[in-house]
Specification:
With about 270 residues, this protein is mostly beta strands. Helix content is about 5%, strand content about 55%. It has one domain: Outer membrane protein transport protein (OMPP1/FadL/TodX) (Porin), CATH 2.40.160.
Length: about 270
């Protein structure tokens, strides 16, 4: 089992043992609509903190998935958005792993609009990693993003994660890598959104996360996409019931199999 988990970690995390850097695990399904006018949600600022400025109501979201049907590769995410007259505040917590290996990242975010065309955001994170029988480490880092509303339908943005390359743990044996991304989103209509995010992480190949979301009506949604670096295809369908939205999701890796997931969002209407 330990050997199997080691092999899967190489696919899941996307970092090599010989490298002195690694990145936090993310869920592509929750990141694909950050550059939309109409279909952003409480999870969107996980991809670009500037997306938090679009939140108009208090919103809470929880997401969970069991990667490749293994309990020790479970991922859970909690996101909260609170809009105020002085800007919007957010909390984002991600927990991944099991008894043998685990990591957690908790971040506090702030975003606001700069006029009609520009949104900006920043987030400070506390990251921890624990490997059974080997020890643990932690680090504090930052990330920030900006989104330009080029037109009513087209949005483009930039995001930077950990630009200073902070060390991980007391002995500085590892460090969190720097990562940069460029995103673009096109709202073909209020129902149809198409977007893509190009990510370049230190010592890793370029990754493209491209997705599409369609609202059949005010109650039914569908989303699908692909990440190039890990060759994972993901899709999901959601239903809106008053203030609650529930999505059933799944992703597929050609070698490791299926990852089921659930997403629940509460969006308090004014």
């Amino acid at each position: 089992m330990k050997f199997l988990l080691t092999v899967i970690f190489c696919f899941t995390i996307g970092s090599a043992v010989a490298q002195n850097s690694r990145s936090a695990v993310k869920a592509p399904y929750t990141r694909s609509n950050a550059y939309s006018h109409f279909q952003t949600d409480v999870f969107s600022f996980g991809a670009n903190q500037a997306a938090l400025a679009q939140q108009k109501n208090i919103s809470v979201g929880v997401y969970g998935e069991r990667r490749f049907m293994l309990q020790d590769l479970s991922l859970y995410q909690l996101s909260i958005a609170v809009p105020t007259t002085s800007g919007n505040f957010g909390l984002n917590v991600v927990r991944f792993g099991g008894t043998e290996y685990g990591e957690m990242a908790a971040g506090l975010a702030y975003a606001r609009k700069l006029g009609e065309k520009i949104d900006v955001g920043v987030q400070f994170n506390y990251y921890t990693i624990n490997v059974n029988s080997y020890g643990s480490g932690s680090a504090i880092n930052a990330e920030a993003g900006v989104i330009f509303h080029a037109t009513d339908q087209l949005n483009v943005g930039l995001h930077v994660y950990n630009p200073t390359g902070v060390k991980l743990g007391k002995n500085d044996e590892e460090r969190l890598p720097s990562a940069y991304s460029f995103g673009v989103g096109w709202d073909a209509s209020e129902k149809l959104f198409i977007g893509a995010e190009v990510q370049k992480e230190e010592d890793q190949p370029v990754n493209v996360n491209a997705g599409i979301q369609y609202a059949f009506d005010k109650m039914l949604f569908a989303r699908a996409g692909v990440t190039s670096a890990s060759s994972i295809f993901y899709f999901g369908a959601g239903v809106l019931l008053k203030d609650f939205r529930l999505d059933a999701t799944a992703s597929f890796h050609p070698h490791l199999g299926i990852t089921p997931g659930l997403m629940l969002i509460y969006n308090r209407r004014k």
